[in-house]
């Protein structure tokens, strides 16, 4: 699982900082999460292949999280994309995008599929044989979701020494990986746990931006491997967080600790701050394993 931060600052793009956008690579998927201005430039900068992006997740309709989307959709069209593109976003974004395409007479030559979100409770919005994606209802000024990406339990691994010693026919290897007991070549039933090892533990990633301090998300993100949580403000500016429905670094750390997360990544910084290390110092007082998002930085976990 690899996370690449394309942008992690709030409000407006600057010369050296970009609004929210990131790419999650998981089990042969490349998921684009939010699409602030400049996203397609950063995708090119980091050599992420456009044609591998088939699913885009938009948290909410504030501009610093979605103003880059119509440009990206247009570029896909100019590149003669053929693959379907799925967009998971709050209800209303489809209307915005299709109006722009209508007025510009620039309909896509590929299938654009909107999955409109309106539920205030967590729901499964994507699933295949290896990955599930759930919404995480957040507390912001408008309807907003985070997203929880979870690997499914993988197949068991063959212990080849044990398999060969037990004289198991190769035709049963598939059933062994699926957890079944099998017969050896002499008709004796052999227990699966003797012949296989556990799969690697499935990994999970939770994206939570933008939101006020919100303990309601805890049951959804419990024991998550990596939590990206917005930290727009430092604690000294907590009075600004409540009315704008944002969080401080200290509040993000509190959520990570209560959720028993393994790693916390801070982001969505207000551009009022010049020293981002202050965010890490503040959060580390509460939660030990803290990382700072930075435009262009990648995390592998």
Structural features:
301 residues, 11 helices, seven-stranded mixed β-sheet, single chain, alpha/beta, 28% strand
How far apart the termini lie comes to 6 Å
- Which overall shape is indicated by the principal axes computed on the Cα atoms? globular
Number of strands: 18
Kindly report the spatial arrangement of strands forming the biggest sheet.
6-5-4-3-2-1-18
In short:
By secondary structure, the protein is of the alpha/beta class. Helices cover 26% and strands 28% of the residues.
What does this protein structure show overall?
It is a single chain. The chain has 301 residues and is of the alpha/beta class. The chain has helices at 39-45, 63-66, 69-78, 93-104, 160-165, 173-177, 192-195, 218-221, 238-244, 249-259, 277-284, and strands at residues 2-7, 21-26, 29-35, 53-57, 85-90, 112-117, 124-127, 131-137, 145-151, 157-158, 182-183, 189-190, 196-197, 204-208, 226-230, 263-267, 290-292, 298-300. The strands form 4 sheets. The protein has a 7-stranded mixed beta sheet with strand order 6-5-4-3-2-1-18. The chain has a 7-stranded mixed beta sheet with strand order 7-8-9-14-15-16-17, with helices on one face. Strands 10-13 form a two-stranded antiparallel ribbon. Helix 8 (218-221) links the parallel strand 14 and strand 15 (226-230).
């Amino acid at each position: 699982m690899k996370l690449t931060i394309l942008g992690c600052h709030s409000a407006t793009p600057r010369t050296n900082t970009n609004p929210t956008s990131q790419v999650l690579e998981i089990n042969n998927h490349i998921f684009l999460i939010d699409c602030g201005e400049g996203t397609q430039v950063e995708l090119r900068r980091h050599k992420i292949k456009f044609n591998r992006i088939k699913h885009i997740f938009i948290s909410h309709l504030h501009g610093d999280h979605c103003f880059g989307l119509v440009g990206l959709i247009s570029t896909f069209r100019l590149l003669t994309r053929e693959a379907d593109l799925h967009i998971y976003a709050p209800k209303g974004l489809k209307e915005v995008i299709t109006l722009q395409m209508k007025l510009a007479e620039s309909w896509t030559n590929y299938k654009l599929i909107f999955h409109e979100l309106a539920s205030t409770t967590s729901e499964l919005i994507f699933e295949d044989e290896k990955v599930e994606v759930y919404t995480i209802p957040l507390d912001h000024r408008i309807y907003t979701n985070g997203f929880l990406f979870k690997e499914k339990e993988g197949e068991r691994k063959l212990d080849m020494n044990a398999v060969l010693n037990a004289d198991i026919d190769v035709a049963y290897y598939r059933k062994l990986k699926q957890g079944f007991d099998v017969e050896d070549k002499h008709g004796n039933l052999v227990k699966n746990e003797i012949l296989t090892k556990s799969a690697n533990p499935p990994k999970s990633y939770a994206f939570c931006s933008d939101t006020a301090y919100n303990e309601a998300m805890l049951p959804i993100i419990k024991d998550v491997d990596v939590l990206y949580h917005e930290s727009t403000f430092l604690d000294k500016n907590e009075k600004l967080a409540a009315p704008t429905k944002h969080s401080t670094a200290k509040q993000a750390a509190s959520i990570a600790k209560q959720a028993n997360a393994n790693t916390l990544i801070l982001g969505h910084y207000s551009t009022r701050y010049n020293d981002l290390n202050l965010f890490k110092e503040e959060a580390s007082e509460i939660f030990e394993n803290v990382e700072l998002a930075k435009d262009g930085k990648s995390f592998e976990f």
